[in-house]
Amino acid sequence: MELSEHIKTANVEDVTLRRPFHPTLRGTLCVTSHHLLFSDRKDEASWQLLILLKNIDAIEKRAVGSSGTITIKCKDLLVLQLEIPGMEECLNIARSIEALSSLESVTEMYPFFYRPSHLTLHGPWGLSSTEQYYKQTERLWDRWRVSKVNSDYSVCPSYPSAVIVPREVDDDKLIRSARFRQGGRFPVLSYCHHRNGMVIMRSSQPLTGANKKRCKEDELLLQAVIDGSELGYIIDLRSAQQAQQTRMTGGGFESKSCYSHWKRIHRHHERGKVVQESLIKLVEACSDPSHSVDRWLSKLENSKWLSHVHSALSTAGLVVECVERDGHSVLVHGSEGTDNTLLVSSLAQLILDPASRTVTGFLCLLEREWIQAGHPFQQRCAHSAYSHARLKQECPSFLLLLDCVWQVWRQFPLALEFSEALLLRLAQEVYASNYGTFLCNSEQERCAAGVKETTHCLFQSLLKPDIEEQYLNPLYEPTDLAIWPAVHPQSLQLWTGMFLRWTEYAQNMEEAREEVWSIVKEHREQAGPDRTNNTLSTHCESLTPIENLMDELTIL
Amino acid sequence: MASAPIAPYNSSPLGNSSSPNASRESLKMEPLADVAMLPGEERVIDKDIIYICPFNAAVKGKVFITNYRLYFKNTDSETPVTLDVPLGVISRVEKMGGASSRGENSYGLEITCKDMRNLRFALKQEGHSRRDIFEIIFKYAFPLSHGMQLFAFLSQEKYEENGWNVYEAMEEYRRQGVPNSEWRITFINKIYELCDTYPTILVVPYKATDEDLKRVATFRSRCRIPVLSWFHKENHAVITRCSQPLVGMSGKRNKDDERYLDLIREANGTTKLTIYDARPNVNAVANKATGGGYEGDDAYQNAELVFLDIHNIHVMRESLKKLKDIVYPNVEESHWLSSLESTHWLEHIKLVLSGAIQVADKVSSGSSVVVHCSDGWDRTAQLTSLAMLMLDSYYRTLRGFQVLLEKEWISFGHKFASRIGHGDKNHADQDRSPIFVQFIDCVWQMTKQFPTAFEFNERLLVVILDHLYSCRFGTFLYNCESARESNNVRVKTVSLWSFVNSDTSLYINPFYTPESSRVLYPVASMRHLELWVTYYIRWNPRIQHQQQSPVEQRYKELLALRDQYLKKLEELQLSDSAPSSTHLTNSSTPNAATPNQHITHLQTPF
């Protein structure tokens, strides 16, 4: 079926459009295969792009006399209203939106048709790769290697073709270890700490099952990770009890007797549906139109969203504590190893590694730890907070990551090179995008769909100088220190920029941001070229001892 | 795995930049640890004591009591634990345990403070060891209850600027554009004859004679007649303030009062004067029983009355008390948000802010308003001063804010002495209430929502609140102008503004962008209000870290390091007899202020 066959009525005149912070407009509405367009009559020639259809999470129809009203609720939390004269037109438009906003086939999606004149499809796609990371990280060269065992995605369908593993473990052992891990996600290197060479590994759960199966190769692999040092930590993102229970369904955990040099710590994290429902409750509370004081804080608490933020940040802090303070390597996993595992490992890197706090570094981190590492974006982001569709595999893991990063940024306003605007942009792009970056569920699927050949890369486009500037933090001062966020409930805040973004408050904040920018720019101009010589940041290297003062996290 | 070491717990609420003239030589006792005493400060007693820190274990050390402060320093370990508490902060001192109490550290003192914390000390259980220190703290913390003077009258501090000159009523009214053809200045209250809780200089409608004022005064609670607070230069609308009318059970009317309000309305041709009664409707009605009340429709036909639903001083006191219960010593973590909600503190903040927004909005649309509550010195002051802060960018500067406080709060008789209980031992006094704290909280909420609109920073707000209690300065002493005058406060004490203005760089918001004509309307929805964690929970060492770590602390450390490097560089240059040109540039450039060094304050996320 051609996409255009979903469109019964392409144009409607005399439509009234209402959206927050804009005057009500009357004009012509138009549905195309991927977009909703609107033009007010003043300027017939130019269509204003309203939204990508994919951004629409839910619509509500209401008949008022002979005309109908469609309320459009977007995945980026924007809510629009269209008043359409003519019931039939209204229903046709609604039907088209419903069909076209929930396309299943990847290659029919807009990124495959997006061809702006300033971008070309030739040249390398993406910012980083496993090989590049390996090349950049000198500390790895001695004991680690890049394995191509998954080059045809047969060992682990959700891993990229290349992974970093201990040098002494050969590909055969990897294959055996993969058979022992859910979805084939055997332990691979995710980060090597620049200060002490300790590593963060990630995987999925071992398939020990009810009768406590073992896998020699898996044990050897982990043994090779710590290589003679006496201890490593396994951070299991499930409670001990949950981990026990999964044995009944074939899963399990690394027992002390088989992995004698690894100490297991359990931290309970909610997942999947529970987190998705939190988001729904949170957004419901935020978009309650009454300005009443009626139990807002209780609603916020009951959504449990902030408690997910708390868990993610505090477990990431725990990982950092193991690596940085105690000097031990860590393996992180939950069950599948595609959601909370990535959340925790990437947050830990943000806290530990100054390189991941630049715009480029952060995008590379997302690319390695989320996109290449096989977070199933298509499944997780099929719907956001408004949809009434039955939940399948939706889960806002990535939004939760962005929220956690925002909390870090709020507590360390100087430490990140990027600003809230970048996080908001990513939150929007992950649900609906012109770019191919967040398409599909794995590298394998992206390969099959030809994403790299036929779509543009979001991250590359974000890094174009004129675009990048709007995402820079004017106050950025790099620091080499670990930035430990405080995780107490009174230290965590609702991410108002995201969840209350369509209110006047957000506008005040935006204005303030612009003013700060101009002040900082003015100062820089005054300071002139000297700035490079005398920023205090050049002395940061010698500040390492005080990082030990930053011990808000008394986690253990 | 070792758990993180507990952070050293230090407490020094006040910027202790005492004058270097403090003569310490005269003291025979050992030097008072690391703290420089204020001129006029005298040692009273030292004592070995155990501080039962709620965040650490018990700490052995020594406590020093002066006529101004309680200072504690530990002696048992290298990590310093100090307390530096002005005695004025103390609300209550109690003995805990008895000579025969069992259990470790069960015999000692419990000190309740006005600034969201309590202190516990333990002493040796022998020979009435706590008697002398208990009596001394009791005496010096509550000097007025013992026929002694507040420390502000003993202090010998000297500053270049005289902060008492910050506010000159005439000058401020002239700045607003008053007097003019609609409003005149009257000296009828020169010797506080008309109203003993008002200032001497009042601004009233041009057409109202002094005789009119006297007659209106008979119909307003405590003679607090409607007078001008603020004048809108463009549309000539005004904010006026007063107390409730004395309507009483019988529904009395007063023609003079009715005519007087109409004069306010007429001054700029407002069609309907809006009277904002800060109270909830029911409270206003209930006040009739005690002779008060509100402006009825029949009597005031050209006015509309709006109730703003703000609760009274008792409700606010209980609310803050509940807040203290959930944040000190330990923060209620498991149900933080719903516990916070049950204190209703943010809800009260919301009501005050949204009341002020209504006032500001009405005035900027060109209509004059009258604001009152019962006596017109608590909620009224909150509403008028917040509305003025929204309307007039001058009050958002460091100077202007001082003027605002001097004018709307201090000169118009907010009863600081009664609300705070300076030097008074009656901790359970029903007159005490955190009305001013609540106002400062509202200001803080505004600075959070408009991070570039205020010239001053959060530190100023905290310093103001600290000295609200400290009794080091005369600024917040007494209930009204007349009492301050008869006690010679301006001559005998130092103003807080002398201290603040002696080093304004500490209080400047680096991101301030002056904008003269903009009215700031904060969003007063619960969703956009935050608990002022860095004030209310600042005694918690975890919050202290958070408060300091990101910006201020790091800059301080970096600056200190830079100084070290400079010193080293200098030494190197000295040892190198022929300094090359590169040395010279190196040594000079770090002195040039980089843009980032200006940015000393940033608790606000943007």
Task: Explain what the structure shows.
The complex is a heterodimer of chains A (about 550) and B (about 600). Chain A contains 20 helices and 14 strands. Chain A has about 550 residues and is of the alpha+beta class. Chain A folds into two domains: about 100 residues, PH-domain like; about 375 residues, no CATH class. Chain A has a seven-stranded antiparallel β-sheet, covered by helices on one side. A five-stranded mixed β-sheet of chain A has the order 10-11-14-12-13, with helices on both faces. A two-stranded antiparallel ribbon of chain A has the order 8-9. The radius of gyration of chain A is 25 Å and the shape is globular. The C terminus of chain A is likely disordered. Chain B is α/β, with parallel strands linked by helices. Chain B folds into two domains: about 110 residues, Roll (PH-domain like); about 400 residues, no CATH class. In chain B, strand 2 and strand 3 form a beta hairpin. The chains are: A alpha+beta (about 550), B alpha/beta (about 600). Chains A and B meet through helix 7, helix 8, helix 12, helix 19 and helix 20 of A and helix 7, helix 8, helix 18 and helix 20 of B.
